[in-house]
Design goal:
268 residues; alpha/beta; Nucleotidyltransferase, domain 5; Transcription Termination Factor Rho, Rna-binding Domain, Chain A, Domain 1; 5-stranded mixed sheet
Length: 268
């Protein structure tokens, strides 16, 4: 029987069989927010493409609080299933079985302190409205706030307007009326990162977003090595390493995805 590792975040979900080669990618989801019918459509697709002869599943997903809202056994009957948070998945991926601080820096941001087995401490992330410092969504929110109020340098604002729905009604609708506002805000991060070296405004915006991450979250934990996973964190790895040194924080690893670490953790 096959073993399946699932890494699901807000933007994408990767479903990888134990051979490390067979994988599919679906839209991401948050178990606390995504409607059941949408989850069921994704699982229908996954079971159709991978088959139902799965013997063991390790399911790491955002928004897992208490009992999982979906029973994977319906799609993979007879499988042994471990449901775990994406945060525990990140800790296992970047720390293995050693103590450390783990962080996810992607569309959202989340952190924990890990003793090599369990999460022992966690600073609440708060989501992109109340927290998520360092994330792509918060960077987009900070930029969009400046853009709407006229604080973005004109050349950069003009370029932004050629790539995004930049009129006030459209932006407000996307943020307050779409089903995934954090994902929309996070889409601005690659545009901004591309201007990091050429725009002092963008450099300050990105640096200050990460400084808030270090000051308001990471420094609340014990002084342990910090491992980071997530696409936005990986794209900004040089920036994070430089700022981490300023704060005296040892960053042990930065990887785009926890999958390689999770496959290793589970002996695959």
């Amino acid at each position: 029987m096959k073993k399946l590792i699932v890494d699901c975040g807000a933007t994408k979900a990767d479903w990888v069989l134990g051979d490390g080669k067979t994988s599919i990618r679906t839209p991401g989801f948050n178990l606390a927010q995504t409607p059941q019918e949408q989850l069921h459509r994704i699982l229908d697709e996954v079971s159709f493409r991978l088959g139902s002869d799965i013997g063991e599943i390790h399911f790491y997903a955002a928004g897992l609080v208490g009992q999982p809202p979906v029973d994977l056994g319906r799609w993979f009957p007879g499988a042994s299933i471990e449901y775990a948070s994406d945060m525990l998945g990140a800790a296992r991926a970047v720390c293995g079985r050693e103590p450390g601080i783990a962080a996810i820096i992607g569309t959202g941001a989340n952190t924990c302190q890990y003793d090599g087995v369990n999460i022992t401490r966690k600073v609440n992330c708060g989501g992109f409205i109340l927290g998520d410092e360092g994330s792509a969504a918060v960077l987009g929110k900070l930029f969009l706030t400046d853009y709407l109020k006229g604080f973005v340098p004109k050349e950069l604002a003009d370029e932004f307007a050629t790539q995004f729905p930049a009129d006030y009604p459209s932006l407000v609708k996307e943020v307050y009326g779409s089903v995934a506002p954090a994902r929309f805000l996070g889409l601005m991060a690659p545009f901004l990162h591309a201007h990091y070296a050429s725009s002092e405004y963008v450099k300050n915006l990105i640096d200050n977003n990460f400084r808030a991450f270090f000051e308001r979250t990471v420094r609340q934990y014990d002084n342990l090595p910090l491992g980071i996973t997530g696409g936005f964190g990986y794209a900004c790895r040089d920036i994070l390493h430089a700022l981490g040194q300023e704060y005296g924080i040892c960053i042990s690893t930065i990887c785009a995805s926890p999958l390689e670490g999770l496959l290793h953790y589970h002996g695959l």
